[in-house]
Amino acid sequence: MEERGVTVDAGGDPGITKRNHRFDKLLETPWEGADTLASLFEQACAKHDGRRALGTREFIKKEAELSADGKAFDKLTFGKYKWISFKEAFEQASCFASGLAELGHLKAERCAIFAETRADWFIALQGCFRQSITVVTMYASLGEDAIAYSLNETEVSTVICDPKQFKKLIAVSMHIKTVRRIVLMSDLEGGSQPQFPDSLTWKVTSFDEVKNVGGQKPLPANLPAPTDIAVIMYTSGSTGMPKGVMMSHGNMVATVAGVLNIVPNISPKDRYLAYLPLAHVLELSAECVITAAGCGLGYGSPLTLTDNSSKIKEGTNGDATELKPTLITAVPAILDRVRDAVRKMVNKKGGLAKVLFDLAYKRSLAVLEGSGSMFWPIEKSLWSNVIFRKIRGILGGSVRGMLSGGAPLSGDTQRFINICFGAPIGQGYGLTETCAGATFSEWDDMSVGRVGPPAPQCYVKLINWEEGGYRVTDQPFPRGEIVIGGPSVTLGYFKNQAKTDEVYKTDERGMRWFYTGDIGQFHKDGCLEIIDRKKDIVKLQHGEYLSLGKVEAVLIASPYVENIMLYADPLRSFCVALVVPTQAALESWATKEHVEYENFSDLCSKEVTNKEIMNSLQQVAKSSKLEKFEVPSKLKILPDPWTPESGLVTAALKLKRENLRKTFARDLEELYS
Known about the structure:
Layout: E1 5-8, E2 16-20, H1 37-47, E3 52-66, E4 72-85, H2 86-103, E5 110-114, H3 119-130, E6 135-137, H4 144-154, E7 156-161, H5 163-171, E8 181-184, E9 203-206, H6 207-216, E10 229-235, E11 243-248, H7 249-260, E12 271-274, H8 281-292, E13 296-299, H9 319-323, E14 327-330, H10 332-349, H11 351-368, H12 376-387, H13 389-392, E15 401-404, H14 411-421, E16 425-431, E17 436-440, E18 459-463, E19 479-485, E20 492-493, H15 497-503, E21 504-506, E22 512-522, E23 528-533, E24 537-539, E25 545-547, H16 548-555, E26 561-568, E27 575-581, H17 583-592, H18 600-605, H19 607-623, E28 634-637, H20 657-663, H21 665-671
Parallel strand pairs: 3-13, 5-6, 5-7, 6-10, 7-8, 8-9, 12-13, 12-14, 14-15, 15-16, 27-28
Antiparallel strand pairs: 1-2, 2-18, 3-4, 10-11, 11-20, 16-17, 18-19, 19-22, 21-22, 22-23, 24-25, 26-27
Helix pairs in contact: 1-2, 2-3, 2-6, 7-8, 10-14, 11-12, 11-14
């Protein structure tokens, strides 16, 4: 067995430590001289000056359409991608930096970017770095209290935002203390700039005007040092107010160095589709990597991603069809939706098409699991060109690799993407506190459920967690809390020294370590598997330890489940579940079984529906060999999806357990009654 993670003595608390098998020393920079994000971007732009850098689709029109239940939805028509070169991107960032200074923003002041993912977001970021300005990032989905809290805690004086987020700022303007300037981006969907009350004291300047002013009055760059704070990133955590993670330029550059050495053959020939929140460390790191490699970076959104996305006008290409990306980053929830959309399409066709798809999938799965036939090369060509070609077209038809991060990816979805899209998935693991990727599964590793060996810029260690019964001496695999060390481990939490001291430590060699609270195990080849989380473990009445996250990751494989939260009362001997169903799958079942209902909410409330979903969960649980106490005894079906806007999931679509528990307290109480 090839060793992918090598055991080393790296100091710190006792445990088992691994490093990447390809590098004897931890990487800190991608190349000499690129020791900050500012220098990295400048050098990449100089090297690839004439190549396409940042692409934005041409907006054509917006139309309101009525759904079957009478609700109005905006449908958008877009044209081709319009590109700016690396040279132009650097010039725009430089002009923006000068314009920001001309507005009166000082180096010592902090600037916030509060907008959805787009080219101007990235240009603003790089512009701030040209003048050593620390950037505060916030999810566009943050609630009003969290917005005011983040801006006040960091004493932000300038906010760069889009029209949608500007309206949110106005709503909480009475509670924001230090903001004096707003830089307002244009509306990418053709809307007019928002109106604001006369009582507003902020100076509002358009994004283009800032660039124009900077172009007329250019200033020399005032570049940062590697130890300077590049970003204070506010995480929309699962509990309480968000925490600001302080990420230095050196931290971020180390992650870029590691990832550049993980993605096979990354080059300017690649095209990357950017649609995840740039305020999330996964997307921010990915875009820094992509630009460093000279790849084209085309912007889109989750609501315009494919031809069938909810905001795309029928007959209009989705972002993926238009861009034809070769590389995509995704969170598991997005990949689950892609899988469900394909299954819906296949089931709708039915007949011979479905028979052939099922056969092709079954045969392909057998090969991945090691039991293919001698005729597989011929079969593979047949299935690829006849059965899976149209499916690959959903994401543009050119994807050669994907990266999944932010949450555990189910084995079912991973296999589905491998087979139907013919592309490997590098599943990664990391946190905001470690500048994203701490581990990545390598593309030739066809196993499921693992997150690979340590990335080249960090160590990954397991230490005993006695309370939970996880020890590095466990057999057949060492298990324990995951601790990450190296140059990508961040500086700590802004204005929260107590929490910083709790989870960050510096050892006798000067190595900085972050204690994740996640539980993992090392496989024999040194690859990591995430098996638990301290906060997700509940001890039931009879002493059994129930891992909520582990069970949820299994049960979400049910075709009826869009989202699920397990809940366990420590004073009881069983658990219950809240389930958001997959509407298409549930309605398809209802039609097949002649279940009558008035609307989707009515269907969700029926006892026969509850029984059907419960049976499905029990089948999935049985096939995954869950213990009886791990399977929910009762469930409540909730028709409305959980979104970041509702405050029930984070921007990375992770569950906010406490918010869910409070919101559905009565339902949970009834399940236990």
